[in-house]
Amino acid sequence: MNLENDFAKLAELLKSRHEWLLVHSTGKSFSLETGEIEIEIKHNKILVGFLDDKGFQTWRIRSFEQKGEEILLNLARNFEKELEKIRLVPRVAASELSAAIELARLEKANEIARLIVAETLGAKLVRVALNEKNGRFAQIIFENRGGKQIAALSDVSGATATTENLIATAILWLARLQNRKKKPVETIWILAEKKRAKNAQKLCAVLRKNWQDKIEIFEVSGKGAKPQSVEEKVSNQSLQKFEPIVFKNLWREKTKEIQSSEKAQISRTAQEIVSIAPKNIDVVLTKQGETLRFLGLPFARVRKISGEEKVWFGIENERQILNEKKFAEFDNLIEELKIYRQSETPNKRHEFYRLSPEAWLEAVLRRNIKLLDGNLILSPVYNQFRAGRDTIDLLALRRDGRLVIVELKVSPDREMIFQAADYWRKIESQRRAGNLQTAKVFGDLEISDQPALCYLVAPFLSFHRDFDFLAQTVSAEIEICRFDLNENWREDLKVMRRKVIGHRN
Q: CB under 8 Å to 196, separation ≥6 — which residues?
């Protein structure tokens, strides 16, 4: 390669932007100004230097290419023993990026509005906007041929909103529109792709009847070939209304069998690691193997490969395989967890203290679920019971045989009530099908023929301000109890208040 030409080309590419995001192959990224990236020709090689979390590094550029606006670098050092691939992604000003995102979302909102008008006989568009909080939802108001105004809501952020978020946003917006003095709105449409629409349809089934009647679910579907223009895109789409599911018909859905708890065994390797700090380390069983956690924080994973148990350790993405050369590093990690992953940590800003707070709370309750309710028995294996792709924090059994779904939060979460209601629906389907009893989730204990309970648990100040209002929209068939904890629950967990939410006597 022509070193001087390549050097000049790379230098020109770097100067085209004031700031770059340097992305390692591990996924770690660092923001650098162009002046902080050094390139030079030395010993007939092009070298690049930059600063990251390991200090200033110098690499030889084996090759580079421009891909769109990004620069891809293939690097090497230490006589080719170390190879690395990094990406330099151009950074734009936050205001510029925000404006571009908002414009794209607004265009999507207008596209949906045009689809509503095209698919609804006599409809007239009144207003199209993005929601004020985060601009993730299209908020559309249109008038039908009878002169009645209807609201419509759709996720325009690339389907990043959860179904629970979608329902909560729709209900709160409709509640405001109902209180308007002029032309109050009584009905809201939720528009989504098929899978999201079906999930919304099921979640709406566990709402109170007065709210079910106000929400209509529509699937936005395509008709054929990929459109070439906005007009073609609108004409290529259609709206299909999903009829509401009657509450008693929820249990007709086919359920998947649950693996028997008798087949779930903790490996010898995992047992040995637990023995290092048995009061703080627990094991979560997954399809891929076992995850070991120190007060809820995952730090090691055990997998069986070709009949041999292998261990990976590290926090988050910093993982490495455990072998004889790494025993000291593994021991050091455990010691640091003992120091910083505790209520009396010398540094509350340390990542070991701050990470996974809800899992920490779950670990405390798993050790002694009776701190929450003296009548509870925790499932010995399914401490994190999987309902579909969702994970329930804790599944317990009361002494009278009633199942209890425990949902935990340590920071305000507006969708908490709907997450619990959806988990309740899934667990109820399994209970009514007899799958939980067959799998012996609670050993030989009998599960009663009564609906499950929902326990919603959070520190006193961590229940969202909209919690009480949204809780009143959930079906009275679901018995929900709210548990307010002390704020310093890490030191000594106590239940400060227990309150039954909206259950009919």
A: 155, 159, 163, 166
Tokens standing for residue 30: 């660092």
pTM of the model: 0.78
Structure tokens at 354: 């701050």
- β-partners of residue 139 are 129, 153
Q: Which two tokens stand for residue 264?
A: 């779930």
Structure tokens at 60: 């030889």
What b/e readout covers 233-246, taking b as 16+ CB neighbours within 10 angstroms? Answer: ebebbebeebebbe
Radius of gyration in angstroms for the set of CA atoms belonging to the chain, rounded to a whole number: 28
d(CA 308, CA 124): 67
Tens-digit pLDDT profile for residues 20-32: 988 888 777 888 8
Taking the mean position of all CA atoms in its chain, how far away is CA 148? 37
257 occurs within a structural domain? no
DSSP characters over 404-431:
EEEEE-SS--TTHHHHHHHHHHHHHHHH
**Does residue 351 form part of some domain?**
no
Q: What whole-number distance in Å separates Cα of residue 26 and Cα of residue 87?
A: 11
Domain boundary among 91, 121, 151: 91
Domain enclosing residue 223, as ranges: 95-252
Question: How many residues would you count in the chain?
Answer: 505
